């Protein structure tokens, strides 16, 4: 998929495509309202438009990402509302929520700059915990959440939190991804904390699905 990606905007990569494949297999009914949280270039919004949704809303904190997502959807003639702001604070009720949040552990959450797309606090869950708490409120009855993150962040913790919010939650996809520059740069620190094994050069990515009951 060709996408305009200005400097500083997250490049669609292994986690994006793992989540997009899970989306293709999710069996989501057409005619629903879709929310793309942390949309980046808008890659997932483009794919979601192929589901014949009623509406697609894409949100990102980065101005450049908003510009990119607006271009990448408009150039394809897609009707996507792209907003700048906090995707977890959007008003409305959605039948499908897509999220590829920052999840790399080991650094503070930056206030600005491209690192906002991956740095997520000491345990990598600064945004994930919020997503798990807010997802039941964002989803309409019968709605579906699809989110991707590293197994280093605690898969069971995500499942437990979503289930605690009344969702049916499960892992629907897994893949081993070679370390990119960010993970290679902090691998020694993560090994010292016991998060990585000696010689480990890949991390497992997971896609987790949460379903809100219809009633």
Descriptive account of the structure:
The protein is of the alpha/beta class and 215 residues long. It contains six helices and seven strands. It has helices at 14-24, 43-48, 63-74, 128-138, 155-164, 181-192, and strands at 33-37, 55-60, 81-84, 94-99, 139-150, 168-178, 202-211. It has a seven-stranded mixed β-sheet with strand order 3-2-1-4-5-7-6.
**Helix percentage range:** 25-40%
SS strand fraction = 25-35%
> What is the count of helical runs?
6
Biggest beta-sheet profile: 7 strands, mixed
Number of domains: 2
Overall structural class, as computed from helix and strand content, comes to: alpha/beta
Shape: globular
Low-confidence stretches: none
Task: Write out the CATH superfamily name of the largest domain.
Answer: Vaccinia Virus protein VP39
> Any idea what the CATH architecture of the largest domain is?
3-Layer(aba) Sandwich
Strands, total number: 7
Main traits of this protein?
215 residues, Rossmann fold, alpha/beta, 2 domains, seven-stranded mixed beta sheet, 29% helix, 25% strand, globular, single chain
Present the secondary structure layout.
Blueprint: H1 14-24, E1 33-37, H2 43-48, E2 55-60, H3 63-74, E3 81-84, E4 94-99, H4 128-138, E5 139-150, H5 155-164, E6 168-178, H6 181-192, E7 202-211
């Amino acid at each position: 998929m060709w996408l305009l990606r200005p400097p500083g905007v997250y490049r669609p990569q292994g986690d994006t495509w793992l989540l997009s494949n899970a989306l293709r297999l999710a069996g989501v009914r057409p005619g629903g309202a879709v929310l793309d949280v942390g949309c980046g270039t808008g890659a997932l919004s483009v794919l979601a438009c192929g589901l014949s949704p009623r509406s697609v809303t894409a949100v990102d904190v980065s101005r450049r990402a908003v510009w990119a997502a607006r271009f990448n959807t408009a150039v394809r003639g897609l009707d996507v509302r792209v907003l700048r702001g906090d995707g977890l604070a959007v008003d409305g009720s959605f039948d499908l929520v897509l999220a590829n949040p920052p999840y790399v552990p080991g650094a503070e959450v930056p206030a600005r700059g491209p690192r906002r797309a991956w740095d997520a606090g000491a345990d990598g869950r600064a945004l994930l915990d919020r997503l798990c708490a807010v997802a039941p409120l964002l989803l309409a009855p019968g709605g579906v959440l699809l989110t991707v993150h590293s197994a280093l962040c605690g898969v069971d913790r995500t499942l437990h939190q979503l289930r605690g919010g009344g969702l049916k939650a499960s892992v629907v996809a897994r893949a081993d991804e070679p370390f990119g520059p960010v993970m290679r740069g902090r691998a020694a620190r993560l090994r010292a904390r016991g998060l990585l094994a000696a010689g480990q050069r890949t991390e497992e990515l997971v896609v987790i699905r949460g379903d809100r009951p219809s009633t």
